[in-house]
Design brief:
Shape: globular
Mean pLDDT: 92
Structural class: alpha/beta
Bound molecules: NADPH dihydro-nicotinamide-adenine-dinucleotide phosphate
Largest sheet: 9 strands, mixed
Order of helices and strands: HHEHEHEEHEHEHEHHEEEEEEEHHE
Number of strands: 15
Strand order of the largest sheet: 14-13-12-11-7-10-9-8-15
Radius of gyration: 21 Å
CATH topology of the largest domain: Dihydrodipicolinate Reductase, domain 2
CATH superfamily of the largest domain: Dihydrodipicolinate Reductase, domain 2
Distance between the termini: 45 Å
Helix content: 25-40%
């Protein structure tokens, strides 16, 4: 670790003298290139799957957050992670015994990265064990469960954050800055297209019991959340229409494609698409009186690309999960306020909107929202 830090310090110093390409600087900027003596958030990850692995890798470059523990149902993964990340036996748990984390002073927060429908009970158990908790998105599978999670964390006096990594992404934040400072003028229209073609029909993402839905819970939520932070208002109504081309793969309660529309208090409107059956859909477009902003790709792992009426956005690419975890450490340990919230209340708004979208699909009517 130290030699890696020394190397990065040296390479950053040299980069001042000789112009290094952007990607090298980006990787230096998000690592331990500056001496850091402040508090470090000690994190245990629950659910060592695909995204858990990505977060763990990215955390190796964090300066304020450190992976120190695991909670998993798969003993062989625990062994692998122990050797890869130097995790002591006393910080390893399974789903039966993790309440005992209460007696472990070496873990500050548990990051829950399991299938959607499991988040609620797992988050509440972590809160009852007196640890802060980060849940992956969607925070839960409906607003009622989300509210219960918020209540449990409040009662236990722990913080509840949700893995909204785009809230820390530099190009996204630049558009939010432009919008807030009036450079775009009055916002008129947002378009969010989020989707991919999903593979294996046996995976949990296509099982309502574990996923709580289909594409909307998994990928459509980015368009919902994006509409809110790009427009800068909360929607007051929603309409939605569902189409299904494959009833075998996308069973009842597992949405394949939903188009949905929002109205905002200012009169701005949004038109969005969520799908598990089309590729090349990762695009946000914001139209305003004085200009426009576009991100494409808009929510993938990056590099995010974007432009506005003023030209290309050229903020540095960062590893989203590294920046997210450093920023979340600041929120939990130092009470920092993010530019766009990442707390339970923020996630609850998305869940209320998802509930309303499903209701609008079912009834065919416009549904009013009070967020
Ligand atoms: P994976 O299937 O790859 O991993 C989920 C892990 O959860 C499993 O490996 C397993 O880990 C654990 N698990 C516990 N119970 C079950 C169960 N009944 N069925 C399946 N797995 C179980 O999923 P992802 O990592 O892709 O997604 C996990 C969460 O992260 C989801 O909520 C998803 O929406 C979110 N996510 C967020 C992303 C983002 O960009 N913010 C990107 C991708 C996912 P173990 O064997 O260790 O118990």
């Amino acid at each position: 670790m130290n030699s890696r830090r020394d190397f990065l310090q040296k390479i950053t110093a040299s980069a001042i003298a000789i112009q290094l390409p952007n990607f090298v600087l980006a990787s230096c900027n998000e690592t331990n290139n500056q001496h850091y003596d402040g508090p470090v958030l000690r994190v245990a990850i629950m659910g060592l799957g695909s995204y858990g692995n990505r977060v763990a890798e990215a955390m190796q470059s964090c300066k304020k957050a450190k992976l120190v523990g695991v909670i998993s149902g798969t003993p062989s993964k625990i062994k692998d992670w122990q050797s890869k990340y130097n995790i002591p036996e006393k910080n390893c748990y399974n789903y039966e015994n993790f309440d005992a984390i209460k007696n472990n002073p070496d873990i500050d927060v548990v990051y829950v990265i399991t299938p959607n429908a499991l988040h609620k009970d797992q988050v509440i158990r972590v809160a009852k064990a007196g640890k802060h908790v980060i849940s992956e998105k969607p925070m839960s599978i409906n607003a009622k469960d989300g509210q219960e999670m918020i209540n449990a964390c409040k009662k236990a006096g722990v913080k509840l954050l949700v893995g909204y990594r785009m809230h820390f992404e530099p190009k996204t934040l630049e558009i939010i800055r432009m919008r807030k400072e009036g450079e775009l003028g009055k916002i008129l229209f947002f378009q969010g297209q989020c989707g991919f073609t999903i593979g294996d029909p046996a995976q949990w993402r296509l099982n309502k019991q574990l996923a709580g839905g289909g594409a909307m819970m998994d990928i459509g939520i980015y368009a919902i959340n994006g509409a809110r932070y790009m427009v800068g208002e909360e929607p007051i109504w929603v309409t939605a229409q569902e189409t299904k081309t494959n009833r075998e793969k996308f069973k009842d309660g597992v949405d394949e494609t939903i188009q949905f529309q929002f109205g905002f208090p200012s009169g701005a409107v949004a038109s969005c698409l969520s799908t598990y059956n089309m590729n090349n859909l990762d695009r946000f477009f914001l139209d305003a009186e004085k200009g426009f902003a576009e991100l494409q790709p808009s929510t993938g792992y990056g590099p995010i690309k974007g432009r506005t009426n003023k030209g290309e956005l050229n903020q540095l690419h960062v590893t989203h999960q590294t920046v997210q975890m450093d920023e979340m450490a600041g929120i939990i340990l130092e009470g920092k306020q993010p530019i766009v919230p990442v707390d339970g209340e923020e996630a609850l708004k998305d869940l209320k909107i998802i509930d309303a979208i499903f209701l609008a699909v079912k009834t065919g009517s416009k549904v009013d929202l009070k967020l």
